[in-house]
User: Fold this.
Amino acid sequence: MPASTTIQIRRGTAAAWTTANSILAAGEMGFETDTKQFKFGDGTTTWTALAYFVGAVASVAGRTGTVVLTSADVGLSNVNNTSDASKPISTATSTALAGKEPSITAGTTGQYWRGDKTWVTLDKTAVGLANVDNTSDASKPLSTAATTALAAKEPTITAGTTAQWWRGDKTWSSVFDGGTP
Assistant:
């Protein structure tokens, strides 16, 4: 009978491997008996830092051989590879945009955007003060009403003394001049 050779691979449970956290030699294989997964060592990396070996896939989405997946194969039949900038907007977005104001061209710092959608200069007329000017009160002329009211007033009366009174004929009279008080 021909001689037979048995090759045994290092093996243990996932918990045992994790606890030992061994470093496998370069190309050495370690097998987890409970998970049926294995890793290959590189001579420097500990067990927990090594990735599990992933073998060839036998089939994808029920297909074998060279498989090219489409968006429908992964549940994305309404998705395509169009960049966001090139995509059309949705009906909902279009409807929402239709109710918005178009861009407003800039005015100046001395203007305001009026309700009729035009730029208007902000001045005294715009705020309802068209007849107002920037004259100081001391320099303003008297109005017709003020002039009429002042015309009905007495001119300044020159002061008399404490022994005098102002008579109806618009003169000062003294107590001792024999006049009638």
